Automatic annotation (TrEMBL):
EC numbers on record: 3.4.23.12
Pfam families listed in its UniProt record: TAXi_C, TAXi_N
Protein name listed in UniProt: Eukaryotic aspartyl protease family protein
InterPro entries, A to Z: Pepsin-like_plant, PEPTIDASE_A1, Peptidase_aspartic_dom_sf, Plant_Aspart_Prot_A1, TAXi_C, TAXi_N
Keywords from the named record: Aspartyl protease, Glycoprotein, Hydrolase, Protease
Protein's UniProt keywords contain Zinc-finger: no
PANTHER family cross-referenced by the UniProt entry: OS07G0603500 PROTEIN-RELATED (PTHR47967), PTHR47967:SF136
Gene3D superfamilies registered for this protein in UniProt: Acid Proteases
GO biological process, one term: proteolysis
Family annotation (CDD domains): pepsin_A_like_plant
């Protein structure tokens, strides 16, 4: 009995005192349709859900049209960031005792902020604002701190100000605070205690203007979104602040967005991994002296049904001012291509289905441009392949390349790609479905592999 007790004691001590740097932690990505009753009330149809999600993609794309730079330099103020039209959220626990709130998840921006009690200009919120002054672990960020950038301060307190492309603004002060996360499945734990990370810098929102989170109309008290969780590549990103724990790596797997059986998880630490037959391509962190603020990759071209399309690869390149490029983004539902590239893809898709006796609908459905009504049940749709640098071909299966809705005579399917003005290209989450992505920001590379049917924990 004595030896058994000693072994148990050592096991418990190992579990309790295991260094935090070896810990993994995970977050569930919650589709917006599951919590946003303002934009997605329960009584709307599947077709209308698709409509609204695609509209959010168009709003998201406006950022690239309105802001001619996707880069920062030491001589410039922080540029406009995307409209808050994101489609996934995470549940966050902040402070001591923990305050729980929903934050929009965004790989296209790096700041995390939450609306705080004491705000003088507040957006409506169901529930409470963060009572930061009641937390035992909050501390104001001083003006001399390196993450106080730009150096905008009042009474020695560092202030932040974010302006979104639709005119929405969030202003307030920067705080140090404790963030709490559930442990990842690789951890050896003896209960379901949360992992706590102290001293994380984030924005405490005290003034908000025109904040609609992409809805486009004034919000109501039914709003449950409390702020933003940014996972971009800039210094204030959660990824970089906790680089010892995250190892500058994160992974996610997105199931079919409207499938209630699909799982969507975001992993950090040892659980941010990939296996099987995966492909790897480089991230583009800079262009000249400019640091890019999104996750760009080099796209060499696009194929339809295995046939390379005559698209000039220069349409996918980052321009000298940081605009353009090809971005991997979790904030856009549909994939966005510059018009010149989109038109080539559209014409080839039309020719493909013309050979099968199908003509496109003259009506726009699901807010998309190319749709087909009442297709035969056995119609075979083509694959779409994005050719990334290094021979990393990203193959989009037909069920992820086309959106389907309706039944009987009302059945419709549409190409899940939009054409837009010459602002840049975005690989949307429809095309990313049923793939695991591993972003190794420390090595400036991203890997991906398809997963069977749905993503698992």
């Amino acid at each position: 009995m004595a030896s058994s007790f000693s072994f148990l004691t050592l096991f418990v001590l190992f579990c309790v005192y295991i260094p935090i740097g070896t810990m993994s932690f995970s977050m569930k990505l919650i589709p917006r349709v599951n919590f946003d009753s303002i934009l997605f009330p329960k009584n709307i149809s599947l077709e209308e859900k698709h409509n609204r999600l695609v509209q959010l993609s168009k709003i998201h794309a406006l950022k690239y049209q309105m802001n001619n730079t996707n880069a920062i330099s030491p001589q410039t103020f922080q540029p406009l960031v995307p409209t808050i039209s994101n489609i996934y959220a995470v549940e966050m626990r902040i402070g001591t005792p923990p305050f729980t709130t929903l934050l929009m998840f965004d790989t296209g921006s790096s700041d995390t902020w939450v609306q705080c009690l004491g705000c003088t200009k507040c957006f409506p919120l169901k529930g409470e604002n963060f009572k930061y002054q009641a937390s035992n672990t909050f501390k104001e960020v001083p003006c001399e701190h390196p993450l106080c950038d730009p150096k905008k301060c009042s009474d020695g307190k560092c202030e932040y100000a974010i302006t979104y492309a639709d005119g929405a603004k969030s202003k307030g002060i920067l705080l140090f605070e404790t963030f709490n996360f559930p442990p990842g499945p690789s951890n050896i734990v003896i209960d379901k205690r949360f992992l706590s990370f102290k001293g994380v810098v984030f924005g405490c929102g005290l003034q908000s203007e025109k904040m609609t989170f992409g809805v486009g109309v004034p919000m109501t008290d039914n709003n449950v979104i409390g702020g933003m969780f940014g996972l971009g590549p800039e210094p204030r990103s959660f990824l970089k602040q906790l680089k010892a724990e995250t190892n500058m790596r994160f992974s996610y797997c997105l199931g079919q967005f409207l499938d209630p059986q699909s799982h969507n998880y975001l992993h950090f630490g040892p659980d941010a991994k990939i296996s099987g037959d995966f492909k790897t391509t480089s991230l583009v962190p800079t262009i000249g002296s400019l640091t890019l603020i999104h996750y760009h990759v080099v796209c060499k071209g696009i194929s339809l049904d295995g046939n390379k399309l005559p698209i000039d690869p220069k349409l996918f390149e980052v321009k000298s001012d940081g605009s353009g490029g090809f971005i991997l983004d979790t904030g856009a539902y549909a994939t966005i291509l510059v018009q010149s590239a989109y038109q080539v893809l559209k014409q080839r898709v039309m020719a493909y289905f013309q050979q099968k006796g199908l003509s496109p609908s003259t009506e726009k459905k699901l807010s998309l441009d190319l749709c087909y009504l009442n297709p035969p049940p056995n119609i075979v749709k083509p694959t779409i392949t994005y050719h990334f640098d290094g021979g990393a071909d990203f193959v989009v299966a037909p069920e992820s390349g086309f959106l389907s809705a309706g039944d009987g005579r009302n059945k419709v399917f549409c190409l899940a790609v939009l054409g837009h003005n010459d602002f840049g290209n975005i690989l949307g989450v429809i095309n990313q479905a049923d793939h695991t992505f591993l972003f190794d920001v420390g090595k400036n590379q991203v890997s991906f592999t398809p997963k069977a049917k749905t993503c698992s924990k």
